Every structure is written in C-alpha cells, then in structure tokens.
Amino acid sequence: MYNFLLTLLIIDCILITIAVLMQPSKTNDAMSALTGGADDLFAKQKPRGFEAFMQRTTLVLGIIFFALSLALAWFSSH
C-alpha cells in the first residue's frame, strides 16, 4: 500500500507542476507603467474558461497532494 501511495504522490507532483506551468501569467509588464495601468480595470473579474479550469485543477491536485502526503506519513509511522 505504501508503494502504491508513493506512486500516486509522484504522479500528482508531476501533474501539479504541469498545471502550474500552464496557468496564464498575471504579472504587469513595463507597458502598464506607460499606459497608466488601465489593465487594472479588468483585474477584479472572476476567471472564466481555461483560466478557471486550471485554477480548479491546481486546487484539486493540491488537495490530493496534501491527503497523499498525510497518508504516507501515517503509513510510515505504523
């Protein structure tokens, strides 16, 4: 059981890495300093489409990572 959970944890780590790298960037570039930061007008909108899907996917994978880590710690102590 320990090896199975460890394999799942490794797969989850790889999937988290991919999900984080696929998320769109939210940083302001140098152009926003020249334009007066008009991009902040739409900064408060809720994410939609691909961005929302990637945020939910990252959240779920993070919860799975946490649960698998706790399960592995419990199995290794018993």
From TrEMBL:
Q: Where in the cell is it found?
A: Cell membrane
- A Pfam family found in this protein is SecG
Q: What Gene Ontology cellular component terms go with this record?
A: plasma membrane
Major localization class: membrane
GO biological process assignments: intracellular protein transmembrane transport; protein secretion; protein transport by the Sec complex
* Alphabetized GO MF terms: protein-transporting ATPase activity
Q: Which InterPro entries match?
A: SecG
Segments traversing the membrane: 6-22, 58-76
Q: Which domain of life is it from?
A: Bacteria
**Entry keyword annotation includes Metal-binding:** no
Could you confirm whether the keyword Transmembrane appears in this record?
yes
Could you list this entry's UniProt keywords, alphabetically sorted.
Cell membrane, Membrane, Protein transport, Translocation, Transmembrane, Transmembrane helix, Transport
Return the similarity comment: Belongs to the SecG family.
Q: What does this protein do?
A: Involved in protein export. Participates in an early event of protein translocation.
For this entry, the protein name equals Protein-export membrane protein SecG
Q: From which source organism is this entry? A: Lentilactobacillus kosonis
Taxonomic path: Bacteria, Bacillati, Bacillota, Bacilli, Lactobacillales
